[in-house]
Amino acid sequence: MDGGLSYGRPQRKNAKAALIHLDNKTARHVVLHLQGLTRAPHIAFEKNGLADLIYQLGFVQMDSIPWVERAHHMILFARNQTYRTKHLSQLHEKEQQLFENWTHDASLIPCEFWPYWKQKFRRDEPKLKEKFIKWQGAGFMDRVEALRDRIEQNGVLRSRDLEKPKGQKLEMWQWHDGKAALEYMWRTGQFAVAGRDGFQKIYDLCYRVIHDDHYGREVSHEEFVDWACRSALDRLGFGTPADIARYWDLLSISEVKDWLDARAKQETKTVIADCCDGSNPKEFFARPDIETIIGKLDKLPDRIRMLSPFDPVIRDRKRLKWLFGFDYTIEIYVPPEKRKYGYYIFPLLERDKLIGRVDAQAKRKEDILTATKLWLEDGIKWSASRDEKFKAELIRQSRLCETKRVDWHKNRIVT
C-alpha cells in the first residue's frame, strides 16, 4: 500500500497531460485533506487506525521538548483527539510496525519503507564516515566495531550505559565517544532504535528490531527514486521538483527533475494553483488522480486546532507561506532579545486557514495548561464563537498533556 485516499497504492495509468486550475482555497483544502486534517477528529480509532494515519502522512517527526506535549504526539492528536500516546510506542516497540530514523530529523516511519531507507543508508554512509572520523579521530571505527560486538553479545544499549572518559568535560550538544559511535551506527542503518527510555534511544541490531518481511527486502536504485517521487507527490497532492525533493529529504532536486523528465506524462498531471496573496499563479506537477481527490474532499472540521511547529503542514516554510500566507519561524534557537513571538509558539488552524499563533505551555508542577499570549493574523477578528472554539481546543490539549486546568483569557490577545 502506498498513498491515495484509501492508503493503498494508486493504480497508475497513462494519463494525458492536462491543465487544471486550483483556486487557493481548493489548493489548501487538498493539502489539508491529504495530510489527514479533514478526518473526523472525534471518531475513535485504535492502533490500526493510527498505523493507517502514520502511513498516510509517511512519517511523524519526533521532538524531545514537551512544551505542551512532544511534537509527534501533537501531530497525531491534531488529526484525532482519541489518539493515545501508548499506542504509538506499542506500534513501534512491540509490533514492529514503525522504525525510527532520519528524514529531515528523527522520525517514526512505517516499516514498509525500510527497504527504501537501505538505499539512503548506502548513499549516506561514505560522507557520514568521513565526517565522524574527522570529528572523532582515527580510532573511531575501532570503537564502532567494539560497540557492535557488545550489542551482539549483550543486547540493547543506551548511551548512558557507556562510561564517560574520566576527566572529560562535556558541554551541551557534545557527545562522548560511545554516543557518537551509537549515533553513527543508527544514521547508517547498522543499529536500530528498539524503543525509548524516557526520551533516550535504546539501540539494538537491526535484524532484531525490523520485522523479517521488511529487513531482508531489497529495491534497486531506480525503484528507490521512483517510489520517493511518487509517494511524495501522493502526499503533497501537487508540487514543484523542490517540493517533491523536500518531502522525504531522500533525493536531490536534479534526481526529481530527471524522474519527471522520464515519467511525468505517465505519472503526473499539470495544475495551476493560485497564491494566497493574489499574485501570479504557479504551475505544479500533480498526482494523476488530482481531479478525483478534489471531487471527494471531506469537509474541514469546524474547530480551532493547535499545531506543532513540526507538523507536516507547517514544516515546509516556503510552501506554507506561499499557500497559506503564514510566515513562521521556530524561535527556540533565536536569542531571547531577538525573538518576535517566543520560545515555542504554536500555529492555530481554523478550517483551511491559519488564523494566528499562541504562546502556550503545560506547567506540570502547577497542573495547568496556560495560554499566555495569542497573536492574530491580519484580517482575523476574534469573536465569542472563536473564543469558545479556542477554549475547547485548550481543554483537548490539556487532556493530552494530562493537566487538570486551563488558564486563558481573551485579554491576552496581542493587538
Structural features, described:
With 415 residues, the protein is α+β, with helices and mostly antiparallel strands. 40% of the residues lie in helices and 18% in strands. Among the domains are: 112-210, no CATH class; 304-414. The protein has helices at residues 24-34, 47-57, 71-77, 85-94, 114-136, 140-154, 177-187, 212-215, 221-236, 241-248, 253-267, 290-295, 312-315, 317-324, 384-401; strands at residues 19-22, 60-61, 98-102, 106-110, 191-197, 200-205, 238-239, 269-273, 282-286, 304-306, 345-350, 353-363, 368-376, 405-407, 413-414. The strands form four sheets. Strands 10, 11, 12, 13, 14 and 15 form a six-stranded mixed β-sheet that branches. It has a four-stranded mixed β-sheet with strand order 1-8-9-7. Strands 2-4-3 form a three-stranded antiparallel β-sheet. Strand 8 (269-273) and strand 9 (282-286) form a beta hairpin. Helix 10 packs across helix 11 (253-267). The model is unreliable at 1-18 (pLDDT under 50).
Give the structure's gist in a few sentences.
With 415 residues, the chain is an alpha+beta fold. Helix content is 40%, strand content 18%.
Which structural traits does this protein have?
6-stranded mixed beta sheet; 4-stranded mixed beta sheet; disordered N terminus
